[in-house]
Amino acid sequence: MNGGRTDRKLDAAWLREGPLPRLLAVLDRDGEEARVIGGAVRNALLGEPVHEYDVATTAVPEEVVRRVTAAGFKAVPTGIAHGTVTVVIDRHPFEVTTLRLDVETYGRYAKVEFGRDWAGDAHRRDFTINALSVTADGSIHDYTNGLADLAARRVRFIGEAKTRIAEDYLRILRFFRFHAAYGLGDPDRDGLSACVEGRAGLDQLSRERVRMEMMKLLLAARATPTLAVMGEVGLLLRVLGGVPYLATFEMMSKVEAAAGIAPDAARRLGALGAATPEDAERLWQRLRLTNAEHARLAAMGAHWRNLSPVQGEQAARAALYRLKPEHYVDCALLAWARAQASAHDEAWRALVTLPQRWTAPVFPLKAADFMARGIEKGPALGAAMRAAEEVWIERGFSSDQSALRAIADAALRSAGGRSA
Predict the structure, then answer these.
(1) pLDDT score for 109
(2) pTM as predicted
């Protein structure tokens, strides 16, 4: 390789069409160079979807802003102190970062200087497969033997693994996340050993950063064997703070596919670690989950045991009505994943997919129906409405007016009121 340049070429439509080549044309001239780097190159070479494009350049941030503004693009100084400018072209954002060289490193943060050394910039990155870069003409540059690691589906730290990890302990989780997404076989031995040795550093990380990496890992193609390795070396218990249910997690991916339901990170986290409401609370605190994620895990921990095909369609409809569709599907899938049933069980599939066939009606009786019967506003009114709703659910969500009157009258008598 000459200056990292390889004999391989990347033939990608995004290098020829759309806003990206326009950005490269502005930055890659007049003494400056620009390349696409990192995930876009890695995924394109693997035939995986590319969702974002990061650009590296020798131009300093001020020059980047000057050039893109002159070209009519929007420049947003999202991280200009660290060399990053977000350039928006036709509503497509691109992160443009000036080549950097670490001068001092302390934990996650490093004192950097801008430079023009592509090899030096590549060697400050985390993994070899993330340090590949490509020029506008498709020429691939590899300074860290990333192409060989990519061909072997091996996730390997650049340089000494312990050093890379000490720079940012989140790289422990990133190592496993990238292995789950792109690796084959066992994790790189040196990398795994360094992760175990540096495991105490995980306690220094913000819970939000840990959550972000874990949620991505849970959706990766080879999440189960990777989580198993993390469990074997004690890292998974350290992250989750409780016993992981790997068999349930693996089964969850199978039943999601069998039911035709898209994989979901929060649901898979519930399968991995939330067998009880207490588990849900622990994971909420441990990973600083969003309120919506917490509510979903709490519902899963509390209600999955109540769902089974043997209880019949009416019981399933009652559960769907009470839980609402999203929580119902989560709980039904978790119940299926924990049941002694195969991923091809039609009864379980019918239970999970009930929301696709039946929409829960709105409770037809209103407060006015009970107030007209002599119940005043207050606790008694609420109690009567709740009692009537339960009877309505048990009787199959009847819409018959005479049946509804009977339900209201029965609730009224139990509340000590008078009939209409």
Answers:
(1) 53
(2) 0.89
